[in-house]
């Protein structure tokens, strides 16, 4: 019985360590910027990083190098670190990532945050052809022009998620679009740039109006969303996914624990059956040995009497 208990003890310890190690896999944090990812030169910006409620330390990396570290602040149910940039410059524009620590473990890195400094160059002009008002199904082309030569242009639509469109060119580029639908309605701006993180002043806005054609069933946006609001929407979506991931992991960990306990019970039963079989076998062998000795004793006694 001692061997059975020893085996169960070692198995339980192994299972406990395995589940504990798996539970210590940390989800990646969320990173975003306020008021926006595009910041005019000289303006301040706040980089926020959100980890799990157990996070005790955060680190911010800029272009792959440690830039700052901070203790978290508790904002409601959120565990957040805030990293302030007093004045945006080309030296502070670039790609940021953050990490957090819980106990002795560090998380995986966040998704990259690309901070852009604007108002670095002259103001480009933006136009759309054949015009700002078209029927759905038609093709349109945006033209972005900058008097001073550059090497890259960006076109952004206010309220649109995802990365801005970009084209390479010296003084003017084209952004073809279409066939357009009512979902293309909105306000557009363009920027010139010498790199991905230092942009010109924004162009004057150009509003594209797409009227419904015959048979057009596409849905038009019903609300205007600013760039700043867009980051809040992205944050809410990402945070919901983050919480879902945590719930999914808790559910998985519980299933692993149940499977482990069931396996432990099965092994215990097998050990008990093996122990019982060995005990019966030894008892039988002992009984057979005693019977053989008794027969030999009787045989010797009988031979002695015959003599």
Question: Could you characterize the architecture of this molecule?
Answer:
The chain crosses the membrane at residues 256-274. It is a single-pass type I membrane protein. Residues 34-118, 129-211 form the Immunoglobulin domain. One of its GO terms (biological process) is immune response-regulating signaling pathway. Residues 1-20 form the signal peptide. With 307 residues, the chain is an alpha+beta fold. Among the domains are: 27-118, Sandwich (Immunoglobulin-like), CATH 2.60.40; 121-211, Immunoglobulin-like. The protein is 33% helix and 34% strand. The chain contains two helices and 19 strands. The chain has helices at 2-23, 227-306; strands spanning 30-34, 38-40, 45-51, 57-62, 65-70, 73-75, 78-85, 94-102, 105-106, 113-118, 125-129, 133-135, 140-145, 152-157, 165-168, 172-177, 186-195, 198-199, 206-211. The strands form four sheets. Strands 2, 4, 5, 8, 9 and 10 form a six-stranded mixed sheet that branches. Helix 1 packs antiparallel against helix 2. The longest helix has 80 residues, at 227-306. It is elongated, with a radius of gyration of 36 Å. The relative contact order is 0.13. Mean pLDDT is 79; it is low at 19-23 and 217-238.
């Amino acid at each position: 019985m001692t061997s059975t208990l020893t085996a169960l003890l070692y198995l339980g310890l192994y299972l406990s360590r395995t589940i504990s190690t798996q539970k210590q896999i940390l989800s990646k944090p969320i990173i975003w910027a306020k008021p926006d990812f595009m910041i005019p030169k000289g303006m301040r910006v706040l980089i926020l990083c959100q980890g799990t409620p157990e996070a005790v330390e955060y680190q911010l990396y800029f272009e792959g190098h440690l830039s700052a570290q901070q203790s978290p602040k508790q904002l409601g149910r959120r565990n957040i670190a805030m990293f302030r940039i007093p004045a945006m410059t080309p030296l502070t524009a670039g790609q940021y990532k953050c990490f957090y620590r819980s106990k002795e473990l560090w998380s995986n890195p966040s998704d990259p945050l690309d901070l852009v400094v604007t108002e670095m160059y002259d103001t480009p002009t933006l136009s759309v052809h054949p015009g700002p008002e078209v029927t759905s199904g038609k093709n349109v082309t945006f033209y972005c022009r900058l008097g001073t030569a550059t090497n890259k242009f960006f076109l952004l639509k206010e309220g649109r998620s995802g990365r801005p469109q970009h084209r390479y060119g010296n003084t003017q580029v084209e952004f073809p679009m279409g066939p357009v639908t009512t979902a293309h309605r909105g306000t557009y701006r363009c920027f010139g740039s010498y790199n991905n993180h230092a942009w010109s002043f924004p162009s004057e806005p150009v509003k594209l109006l797409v009227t419904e054609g015959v048979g057009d069933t596409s849905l038009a946006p019903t609300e205007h969303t600013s760039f700043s609001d867009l980051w809040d929407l992205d944050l809410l979506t990402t945070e919901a996914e983050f919480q879902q991931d945590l719930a999914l992991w808790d559910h998985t960990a519980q299933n692993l624990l149940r499977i482990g306990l069931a396996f432990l019970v099965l092994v215990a039963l097998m050990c008990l059956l093996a122990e019982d079989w060995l005990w019966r076998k030894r008892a039988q062998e002992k009984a057979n040995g005693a019977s053989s000795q008794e027969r030999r004793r009787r045989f010797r006694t009988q031979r002695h009497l015959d003599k």
